[in-house]
């Protein structure tokens, strides 16, 4: 049983209500289709539970749901909160737009609130500096206008929060494992990472820029890595109309895989146009005395620069496609993602545990293992 989020590697926490599945503080389940998800409290993504751990947990969730007081519902989706703090989301047979609104609308709203909360602290420091500048007479005209309240405070706070969040996020890296090799991807690398068509895998691939170079990823690895990078690219969340536009794109596609292939073909065309403009620019520079610089990172096909509704729709499609593969028995992508999340979470947890304490824990685990083995082997008992 896994305990870390597939996408952000944060702990999924525990509950004391569902004995068959004590992981998670919000569980979503679809009894008819046999699906069970743990909703991450940090990034709000839905992590599909391993198939062998679903059935008893789904039955327990169904009983708890029926005995609890309904808090919110649509025609096919209901939400209850138990006294112990566990939230249950029961899925019936909703249409895709309704399901997407529940799954992804809440995710992007949570990310939006988190981005503002994280950035507000940094923006607050800037606001204090601006206030000091006003009092000393060194502020510029626009700072003075802000201080006088010409621009709505809430709007300005949100913009400053997003800007500060992006600045802070640019210094952190996303750790990935590609072909057994660990690589780091920074926010700036997303501006040079894009989808392309491919004859391998599902008809598309990821042209990845990372801290050490570039490579092309295909198949299950491409799906897993692109989903993680989109979680970061969409880290600021989205407004309601953007989510609605993205879900409309998803619902209009014949299936999620077809949408990904369509977006990959479009991204490849945009990337080719970007490269053509770069060649024309360099050719013009060779025959001109004018100095200039071509911004290679302004690739409109990149994960960071494609239109927000398109980027949201792509993340939704990849999420649903990975679940489809898992539900059809292709568990390798899901297991690989879980293991990567657990590995990263273990590294993060290990940084907080002193070496002496960790050694003592390892010793206790070994002693417990030997005790269990002796108890299970009747030949190891004392017959005197």
SSE topology sketch:
Layout: E1 26-30, E2 35-39, E3 46-48, H1 55-67, E4 70-73, E5 77-81, E6 87-91, H2 96-136, H3 141-147, H4 153-169, E7 173-178, E8 181-186, E9 194-197, E10 204-210, E11 213-218, H5 219-233, H6 240-252, H7 256-286, H8 308-327, H9 332-350, H10 355-376
Helix pairs in contact: 2-4, 2-6, 5-8, 5-9, 6-8, 7-8
Task: Name some characteristics of this structure.
single chain; 384 residues; alpha+beta; six-stranded mixed β-sheet; three-stranded antiparallel β-sheet; 52% helix; disordered C terminus
Notes on the structure:
- It is built from ten helices and eleven strands.
- The chain is of the alpha+beta class and about 375 residues long.
- The strands form three sheets. The chain has a six-stranded mixed beta sheet, with helices on both faces. Strands 9-10-11 form a three-stranded antiparallel beta sheet. A two-stranded antiparallel sheet has the order 7-8.
- Helix 2 runs antiparallel to helix 6, helix 5 packs across helix 8 and helix 5 crosses helix 9.
């Amino acid at each position: 049983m896994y305990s870390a989020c597939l996408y952000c590697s944060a702990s999924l926490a525990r509950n004391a209500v569902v004995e068959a599945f004590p992981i998670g503080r919000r569980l979503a389940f679809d009894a008819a289709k046999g699906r069970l998800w743990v909703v991450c409290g940090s990034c709000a993504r839905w992590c599909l539970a391993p198939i062998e751990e679903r059935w008893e947990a789904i039955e327990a969730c169904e009983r708890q749901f029926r005995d609890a007081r309904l808090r919110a519902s649509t025609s096919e989706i209901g939400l209850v909160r138990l006294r112990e703090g566990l939230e249950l989301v029961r899925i019936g047979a909703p249409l895709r737009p309704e399901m997407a609104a529940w799954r992804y609308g809440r995710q992007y709203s949570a990310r939006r609130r988190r981005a503002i909360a994280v950035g507000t602290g940094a923006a607050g420091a800037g606001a204090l500096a601006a206030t000091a500048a006003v009092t000393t007479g060194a502020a510029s005209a626009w700072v003075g206008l802000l201080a006088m309240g010409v621009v709505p405070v809430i709007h300005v706070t949100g913009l400053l929060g997003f800007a500060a969040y992006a600045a802070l996020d640019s210094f952190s890296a996303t750790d990935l494992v590609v072909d057994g090799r660990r690589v780091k991807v920074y926010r700036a690398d997303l501006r040079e990472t894009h989808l392309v068509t491919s004859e391998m895998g599902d008809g598309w691939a990821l042209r990845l820029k990372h801290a050490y170079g570039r490579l092309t990823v295909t198949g299950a690895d491409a799906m897993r890595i692109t989903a993680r990078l989109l979680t970061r690219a969409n880290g600021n969340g989205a407004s309601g109309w953007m989510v609605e536009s993205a879900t409309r794109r998803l619902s209009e596609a014949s299936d999620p895989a077809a949408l990904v292939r369509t977006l990959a073909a479009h991204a490849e065309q945009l990337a080719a146009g970007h490269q053509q403009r770069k060649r024309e620019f360099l050719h013009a520079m060779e025959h001109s005395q004018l100095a200039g610089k071509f911004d290679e990172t302004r690739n409109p096909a990149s994960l960071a620069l494609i239109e927000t509704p398109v980027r949201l729709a792509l993340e939704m499609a990849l999420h649903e496609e990975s679940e489809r593969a898992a539900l059809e028995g292709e568990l390798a992508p899901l297991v690989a993602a879980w293991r990567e999340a657990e590995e990263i979470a273990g590294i993060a947890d290990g940084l907080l545990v002193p070496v002496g304490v960790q050694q003592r824990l390892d010793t206790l685990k070994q002693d417990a293992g030997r005790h269990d083995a002796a108890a299970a082997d009747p030949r190891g008992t004392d017959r005197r």
